[in-house]
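[INFO] parsing input record for FAA hydrolase family protein
[DEBUG] input buffer:
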Amino acid sequence: MRIANLAGRLVLVTATGAVDVEEASQGRFGPDPTAVYRDWRDFTAWAASAGLPAGEPLDETLLGAPVPEPGQIFAIGLNYREHATESGLDFPVEPPVFTKFRTSITGPYGDLALPGDTVDWEAELVVVIGREARQVAAADAWEYVAGLTVGQDYSERTRQLVPPAPQFSLGKSFPGFAPIGPVVVTPDELPDPGNLEIGCSIDGEQVQKARTGDLIFSVPVLIERLSAVLPLQPGDLIFTGTPSGVGGGRNPKRFLVAGEEVVTWIEGIGQLRQRCVPGTPYTTAS
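[DEBUG] output buffer:
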């Protein structure tokens, strides 16, 4: 099953196009793309048994974030060994966790306003939680996953690493710094949801390529470790970390400039596309 947000309404993307969920279910499920995860079991049972009508042509320019209002956003650092190496840091023994604030969430396509001259890219697999998870064992964790989507963890490195204490969450939460989409894909749609090709290119030049099977902490382990501390709620997002190839890990360092197009993809899910444009510089301490 492939789920999307089309002009603010929940749709299923089928071979024939986009099926409006509220209309097809005769009001049983509403149009809110986020609310459906709180009723995930009933929704998936309905979608599997319903005789869905033919879809309407899908206008991709109208796609928004498939989960526009997550309750919690967890982001994991240093979750690929080569990325930890390029960052000059040891491999973590526990997942390093921060957040991206909700107002940074945006849809899969559009402009990325650059608030500074050290904005970096980080292609990421994003997990969408489908039922409350408390003290979940890794062996059972996929049962709590509604689906997977593509994400970018854009980062203003100067703001992120301001001394004396780095401010990861602020440096990664400027408007538009968390595009996700274009759809949420349920794990059963993917031959191996734990091992997908992921990559990123800038103006056609490939800058990142890896497989999610290379994660230090896999999706099930992340759910186990996070749910041991606090409950994960339906519709929560987990940005699982980025592979090597980020601009800050290069010599010389490379950051995004206005006019460049960033394309991020994950096998079996789809791609994001952002065009970099000048943004409003943020205020710094004088």
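[INFO] Residues 118 and 157 are 6 Å apart (CA to CA).
[INFO] shutting down worker
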